[in-house]
Amino acid sequence: MGSLFRSEEMALCQLFLQSEAAYACVSELGELGLVQFRDLNPDVNAFQRKFVNEVRRCDEMERKLRYLEKEIKKDGIPMLDTGESPEAPQPREMIDLEATFEKLENELREVNQNAEALKRNFLELTELKHILRKTQVFFDEQEGGLNHTTESMTRALITDEVRTAGASMGPVQLGFMEKSIEREDYLPCFVAGVISREKLPAFERMLWRACRGNVFLRQAMIESPLEDPTNGDQVYKSVFIIFFQGDQLKTRVKKICEGFRATLYPCPEAPADRREMAMGVMTRIEDLNTVLGQTQDHRHRVLVAAAKNLKNWFVKVRKIKAIYHTLNLFNLDVTQKCLIAECWVPLLDIETIQLALRRGTERSGSSVPPILNRMQTFENPPTYNRTNKFTKAFQALIDAYGVASYREMNPAPYTIITFPFLFAVMFGDLGHGAIMALFGLWMIRKEKGLAAQKTDNEIWNIFFGGRYIIFLMGVFSMYTGLIYNDIFSKSLNIFGSHWHLSYNKSTVWNNKYLQLSPATSDYEGTPYPFGMDPIWQVASSNKIVFQNAYKMKISIIFGVLHMIFGVIMSWHNHTYFRNRLSLLYEFIPQLLFLVVLFFYLVLLMFIKWNRYAATNEFPMTEACAPSILITFIDMVLFKKSKPPGLHCNTYMFAGQSFFQTVFVLIALACIPVMLLGKPIKIMQARKLANVQPITGASDAEVGGMSNGGGSHGGGGEHHDEEEMSEIFIHQGIHTIEYVLGSVSHTASYLRLWALSLAHAQLAEVLWSMVLSLGLNKEGWLGGIFLTVVFAFWAVLTVGILVLMEGLSAFLHTLRLHWVEFQSKFYMGHGYAFQPFSFDTIIENGGAVTETE
């Protein structure tokens, strides 16, 4: 089979590269993305490898680029992304890149330091400006006749002795020694500054407690926030002025200010000095604004120039780093002139890889051609399934369960059809399927633009990655919706119902329940051309009964066919790996067990549908149709079935009892074959091996593989080193799992019926309890009410029935594939092929994955 149905054939190759050409050759292989290198120095520390200095240089360049990127994003400058991937630079170009990045970083850091110093100076001047303004208000209040409160508060700072001695002092003056009075040492002093607004209450309490109430604090808020020069945050601050007396309190007040990170500024006492300082401050602020603007313009120009090339620089540096990281996996020969590598490559791509190596050699100017030798190995090769944008999502569903063993049958191609179909059986609604299909189609049509956005939203990335799955699930749901004749819980009468009312109008209006019989002229005798007859939509009393019987049976039919297909897939694995024992003692009894019990159950359904009808003559009428479930239970218990009614036939066809007994005996006989057949054969082969050597052909019969590969989980496992007791236990577990699993897995497919029923009932509830309320209203008010109700109904439909029910059906479908289908043939014991690819490395943000 082709690689679509099995993983690619892989080869382990040895690669010899001249040291001068190694860089260019690895660069070409990285662009190709088809080679997985092995680490030939697993015991060597990462810091002791040959190219560790080059990797460190790349790390340093990446750090500088991340710094530039952070500054560019901080300024909101768009970075040019052409979507192109430049080639990996030559080693000599690293020096130019390092010099460019060093120059840009130093220039930007210098500009930032200057800007920060200017902003700090600007902040100090701005705070001083606010201090001069606010303190001027404080002093104006005292000088303008509003000094009674100030005088009383200030006198509280002076002791009783001083007040008594200076009773004739007159009005108290705030300040130092502007007015010449006696006992100057006792005049109050003051300090002024700014403090963060949220620290102010604690600051005030600390001043009061530490100074025992011998200070007077005045504060005023600065209305506009100030920018912190360190981090650019906006900070709200307040101006304060503290009056106190004596040097001891002065020292204490300054320590408290320092502890609360308050900034103190000089504030002249004389009004003339304050005005003169304020004018000087305003002049300096204007000059600083001019300089700051020029600095920001220069910084912006530097960042804009860097933003044009930043993406390309990142790609170049990451490619260089990936190349040297890969070269560290190589070995040096004894002459130190040749690098030796081992790598896994797809067998079909060896010529393409050799062409890439030649291009790399020519680019480097080397005269020695590279040598690529294929090696023989018994090691398990990695699993490589080629995918495109359509099959990638389906392959991801399979790999999430487990990566296929080497050359094992790949379920992904079959999942492309079975997955959306089984989903649609549970989600069958023409309207809901159309919504889902349109959403998937929109993502497919816009995939180039949406893929270029590269968002970090995980939920959106999951939806976008599965756009083809969503589209197919929607299309298949539209098909099953037509089969169920269900669109938003209503039916489409395209071809006209094949049932007709034989009652008159008064009979219909006066009777709550009326019955139409298929045995009379009420039914035309031929079914509706496509899907269910729309008459069932108005059959409120037995609609669910009819649909339950129909959906339950088709769930069992699809489930049994799906499981039989899975068992047949195991036949492809056993024949490919020439595993004769598994073919004879696992595949054949497993298939027989499934067919004689559960496929026979499916046949009974079709026989019942075909032989019994209301229009048939007795005893083939619908009243004599036996229950399939009761028949199957009686069959397994070797119990004689009872006739469904008086004078009815017990069985549906002649010899049914005999065939059922034979089928159950065959199924029971298959169990010991599955349980003991393979272990006994292995035991006999081992006894024979003690007498004479086992030939290569016998190895294949015992369970070995003749394709030159390692062990294979799909049936090519070696048992030479395994104890016989472990083989018997292992086989017993698998036999019990299969026999019991056949019953439980068949019942598990009933989730198709259950989810379909729940989805249909939820849709009907939303229609009858929400939208029908708006449809029953009349007049212009009814139109407004209908608009509101329709919007509410649409939100609930999309949110609950499409998203939540769709997710539920998706998970149930995933379980049916992982457990019920893949457990029949798929082991998933392999490991993924992880080639050295620049595209993957750049997509993952430069994270180079170590390959062993």
From TrEMBL:
Annotated InterPro entries: V-ATPase_116kDa_su, V-type_ATPase_116kDa_su_euka
Coiled coil: 51-128
Subcellular location, principal: membrane
Subcellular location(s) of the protein: Membrane
Entry's transmembrane regions: 416-444, 464-484, 554-572, 587-607, 658-677, 752-774, 780-804
Keywords linked to the UniProt accession: Coiled coil, Hydrogen ion transport, Ion transport, Membrane, Transmembrane, Transmembrane helix, Transport
Record's GO cellular component terms: plasma membrane; vacuolar proton-transporting V-type ATPase, V0 domain
Membrane topology: Multi-pass membrane protein
Keyword check for Transmembrane helix: yes
Name recorded for this polypeptide: V-type proton ATPase subunit a
Source species of the chain: Drosophila navojoa
